[in-house]
Amino acid sequence: MKLFFRIFFKTLRFILGPVLLLWDWLTTPKGVVRNEQEQQRIDDETRNLVLYQFRTCPFCIKTRRAIKRLSLKIEQFDAQHDPVAWETLLKGGGEIKVPCLRVTESSGELRWIYESEAIIQYLQRFA
Domain of 117? Predict the structure, then answer.
């Protein structure tokens, strides 16, 4: 029975993953338009942010769409297919759970924010 569920969900992800990515591509949100100086200031503030995500995870897609909508330049790693990102997420954040935003504070301290809603709420401060 366990094998059945594993195969079922793997097949479901195999079918729905490309559909989710196509939908995301077709309905990409427009970003906020800012003047060059304001955008540069925000880019400098977001330079210390890194998003760990899986390409087809619906919550990661939601987070990436918010990043696009807010016109933020945030480095992104696909922790599902990048072993270095996987290890960094596991060692730094303590668990493989996506989306995860790594925030490097000005003091050098690292903070790991999980949950798409919490990440989007944090990113709203740059709007």
Answer: 2-126
Q: Give pTM, 2 decimals.
A: 0.89
Nearest-10 crossing angle of helices 2-26, 58-69: 20
Q: What is the pLDDT along the chain (127 residues), one digit of tens a residue?
A: 889 989 998 898 899 999 999 999 999 999 999 999 999 999 999 999 999 999 999 999 999 999 999 999 999 999 999 999 999 999 999 999 999 999 999 898 999 999 999 999 999 998 7
**Is residue 3 exposed (0-12), middle (13-18) or buried (19+ Cβ within 10 Å)?**
exposed
What's the CATH code of the domain at 57?
3.40.30.10
What's the number of domains the chain is made of? 1
111, 122 in Cβ contact below 8 A?
A: no
At how many degrees (to 10) do helices 58-69 and 116-123 cross?
10
Between the alpha carbon of residue 118 and those of residues 50, 60, 63, 73, the distances in Å are 15, 12, 10, 18
